Amino acid sequence: MIPQLAFVFPGQGSQSQGMLAELAAAHPLIAETFAEASEGAGVDLWQISQDNPDDRLNQTEFTQPALLAANIALWRLWQAQSLPVPALLAGHSLGEYAALVAAGALSLKDGAHLVRLRGQFMQAAVPAGTGAMAAVLGAEDAQVEQICSETSADASVVVPANYNSPGQIVIGGHADAVDRALAALQAAGIRKTVKLAVSVPSHTPLMRDAALQLQEAIAAATWSMPDRPVIHNVDAARKTDLAALQHALVEQLYLPVQWTRCTQALAAAGIRHAIECGPGKVLAGLVKRIDKSISTYNLASAAEWQATSIQTFE
To answer: How far apart are CA 6 and CA 137, in angstroms?
Structure first.
């Protein structure tokens, strides 16, 4: 185990049609992992990820198990080649489930079943058009928090949903409240705001009903303590018992993702290298913005895999 090495697992938004196809052509373990996850999810995740029928890959209930399969496929391939073992794990939103599967806290089948249910609960919790999310760039956390508070009402709320890095916050909630907050931010001089193409306001109070359903599904799964520390989204802390771990996953659905603090926790623990174990490069970019002392690496293509696998991580 390399004490200065961490793996970080991406969440929803990192999916892409054809993901891992290049590596899968050379490594049967990729397809085998997808097949195992497909049993748990009850749907062919490899077909969804490669062919994207009916745009299923971008539908939350399919996106989540497909990304979990992709993340764990890369993790297993890394393990199979006896490459350096990370001391710490973390994941962004859905990626936290991948971190827990990688750490042996949950089987891949159970994980795929659970995150498909998570996606279904999230989609059903908020009728289409009711919720919204937006990225806010170049604003201080306190300013965004204050404007969200000022533009929220009892029946129409907007809150910070993702603290992705300094100067990059995602807000979410009721669509009209998000619009009010964006107008107030622009009036305050914050010009860089982007409405996101999602209707499910993840990590906001609108997900509380979904969280209650998820709590039952989490309790029904078979859990073990992770074989190495996992940094959780809700408080950037490790959990020392299963009850606390499960509660953190429930809270994660309606409380903000504290990714800035998670990365800072990795750095404070002595991490100097972070490998993004999943499609895309989102987390590598965020980690660099948060703490430049941490070197980042990717695995999603054959070239990236080759470049990362030859590192010594000293």
So the answer is: 27
Could you tell me the CA-to-CA distances from 66 to 38, 78, 84, 152, 217 in Å, in that order?
8, 19, 26, 35, 19
Residue type, 99: A
183: enclosing H helix or E strand: helix 175-187
Write the single-letter amino acid at 67. L
- Please give the structure tokens belonging to residue 280: 């895309």
Phi, psi (5° rounding) for residue 119?
-65, -40
For tokens 């710490």, name the residue: 88
The shares of helix, strand and coil residues in the chain, as percent rounded to the nearest 5, are: 50, 15, 35
Which active-site residues does the annotation give?
93, 203
Report the interhelical angle of 175-187 vs 141-151 (nearest 10°).
Answer: 130
Cβ-in-10-Å burial (0-12, 13-18, 19+) of 45 comes to buried
**Would you say residue 219 has pLDDT above 80?**
yes
How long a stretch of residues is the chain? 314
Residue 143, CA distances (Å) to 35, 154, 230 in order: 46, 21, 30
Output the six-digit token pair for 241.
Answer: 């018992």
DSSP state for residue 206 in the 8-state scheme: G
* 129: alpha, beta or left? (left if phi > 0; alpha if psi -120 to 50): left
Per-residue pLDDT tens over the stretch 65-112: 999 999 999 999 999 999 999 999 999 999 999 999 999 999 999 999
